[in-house]
Amino acid sequence: xxxxxxxxxxxxxxxxxxxxxxxxxxxxxxxxxxxxxxxxxxxxxxxxxxxxxxxxxxxxxxxxxxxxxxxxxxxxxxxxxxxxxxxxxxxxxxxxxxxxxxxxxxxxxxxxxxxxxxxxxxxxxxxxxxxxxxxxxxxxxxxxxxxxxxxxxxxxxxxxxxxxxxxxxxxxxxxxxxxxxxxxxxxxxxxxxxxxxxxxxxxxxxxxxxxxxxxxxxxxxxxxxxxxxxxxxxxxxxxxxxxxxxxxxxxxxxxxxxxxxxxxxxxxxxxxxxxxxxxxxxxxxxxxxxxxxxxxxxxxxxxxxxxxxxxxxxxxxxxxxxxxxxxxxxxx
Length: 332
Fold this sequence. Notes:
Elements (H helix, E strand, L loop, with lengths): L1 E5 L4 H13 L4 E6 L19 E5 L5 H10 L4 E4 L6 H6 L1 H23 E2 L4 E2 L4 E7 L24 H20 L3 E6 L1 E3 L8 H10 L4 E4 L5 E6 H14 L5 E4 L4 E3 H13 L10 E4 L14 H7 L7 H15 L3
Parallel strand pairs: 1-2, 1-4, 2-3, 4-7, 7-8, 8-12, 9-11, 10-14
Antiparallel strand pairs: 5-6, 11-13
GO molecular function: dTDP-glucose 4,6-dehydratase activity
EC number: 4.2.1.46
GO biological process, one term: nucleotide-sugar metabolic process
């Protein structure tokens, strides 16, 4: 199998690269990344020594280059991790989110279509597939008494980030509806694990706590998120890649709901055992984010039933493993 992974030097993309090469050593993977502030070649340093992995610095908005890569390497599968993903940044600079997340996705689709689709026969090249990696945030917010979102719920994004991802999802779906392009869309809950950029909640809390800096908490800290270990996410993506029927959308979540303040205190308490100077006094409540969604939660029964996926269901163990990886990274 010949696979194009976009956003390969980012958090989830780099973790998926490691996972796929480990479990499918004969596959050829072409990885591209624009290498913005969130992309780090150190994330794929070991994989770059693998003869079955080729890295190319490229922007998914560069259609000529993308099309050339698909054709040159006879790409059969595309997994689109490339995205601007930090909500705060989308509030400050929404245009770049629209360009990368919406236009970039459309360019990838169009580039693949030019190579994979025979318009005269109205057929697609055998064994091709495009997977769009999306987010549970496209569904919008839930109240405490509401059931987790299923794939049948309407999308209702509230931030420029989630709106851009929702728009990309709809474009991907339109290529299936219009051209019968072989696609899947996955919508995951909040990921955590090694190599995540420090702008995200868990690494930010760990780094600030280690350095005895204030830990900012939006509003009352009672916003609820469903957390998913990145390796569990990678296993699910591989199953979708290999076994999912074309046109299907899959939620990927662990049903591990935590308030932000609960999660932050769990991290602090773990670090306190290693350094007694790290305590909850570091917590600093700040003005809430505009349009901050109260609760995200998704129902993953469909992927469990269709593809037999199961999460590791060990949040605490995976969280502590993640914290230890950052302790090692920060040399304490």
